[in-house]
Design goal:
This protein is of the alpha+beta class and 268 residues long. It folds into two domains: 126 residues, no CATH class; 111 residues, no CATH class. Helix content is 22%, strand content 35%. Helix 1 runs antiparallel to helix 5 and helix 2 runs parallel beside helix 6. The longest helix has 14 residues. The chain is globular and about 60 Å long.
Length: 268
């Protein structure tokens, strides 16, 4: 079953699902080849919703943990914010189907992915504890981060339109002279969403300190430091010159998760 609504519900009183199933996803297709891309620990498991049914298809336990505890996947991977995860919990995948109790408060899929759906996150935490016997602890440690701020002269961002489709991707382009560069395409996205993807490029946590609200559109053309074939300004320079945003190095407390115990799921 494929679910596409953007609304998720969570109950305000009892933080457990009414019904939940956990089904392992076969790693081998009929032709004998892997049916899942070879990216253990990748950012899979995109939540979907239909009425009061939550589905998280093709999700690793690692990704379910990140959703449940409000941690961004790109950030967790690049900054190693989760320790003690066994290899199977990163590579093996599961389809999650859950019924959320009636008369529940509403959350959006974006809120869940951004860690702003506390009651629904507690439901996922209860599911992980019950079916995967997950036990963990949270710690805070000071880490090197980047602060996203507005540059001198202010931001140069276009307000998104109602008809715009959300997008937040990096891709590559080649100009007429054969020069290769990366381009960050932002459409109908907030600063809070932007700092989700920047760690995948910068390999360091990024915290939003712009104070900017609302959804915006912009493009940034830059050269990635990890791609020697690319030419142009660094992302730091490009953000400042092209859209009036600035990245500043700093130290800040960052939450980390330490896994004490986790098991493959019990039978439904």
């Amino acid at each position: 079953m494929c679910l596409f609504s953007s609304t998720i519900f969570a109950q305000s009183s009892q933080a457990t699902f009414e019904v939940a199933t956990v089904k392992p996803v076969s790693l081998v297709a009929r032709d004998g080849k892997s049916s899942i891309p070879d990216n253990p620990g990748g950012c899979s498991g995109i939540p979907q919703m239909n009425s009061n049914r939550l589905a998280i298809p093709n999700a690793s336990v690692y990704n379910l943990m990140l959703l449940a505890y409000g941690m961004n996947c790109f950030l967790a991977r690049s900054a190693n914010l989760v320790s003690g995860v066994p290899e199977w919990a990163r590579s093996e995948r599961f389809d999650i189907q859950a019924v959320i109790p009636a008369n529940s408060a509403m959350y959006s899929v974006e809120q869940l992915r951004n860690g702003n759906a506390p009651t629904l996150q507690r439901m996922l935490q209860a599911l992980l504890a019950d079916r995967f016997k997950l036990a963990l602890r949270r710690e805070t440690k000071e880490m090197s981060v980047y602060l996203l701020t507005t540059a001198k002269g202010g931001p140069k961002l276009a307000t998104s339109r109602e008809e715009d489709r959300p997008a937040l991707v990096t891709t590559r382009r080649t100009d007429p002279n054969g020069n290769v560069s990366s381009i960050l395409v932002v459409r109908k996205s907030s600063m809070a969403t932007l700092v989700e993807i920047l760690p995948s490029i910068l390999r360091r946590p990024v915290l939003d300190r712009t104070g900017l609200d609302g959804e915006v559109n912009f493009d940034v053309v830059f050269a990635r430091e990890d791609r020697p074939d690319e030419t142009g300004a660094s992302l730091f320079t490009a953000l400042q010159e092209q859209v009036g945003l600035k990245l500043e190095a700093a130290k800040a407390p960052v939450e980390v998760l330490i896994i004490a115990h986790v098991e493959r799921p019990s039978e439904n």
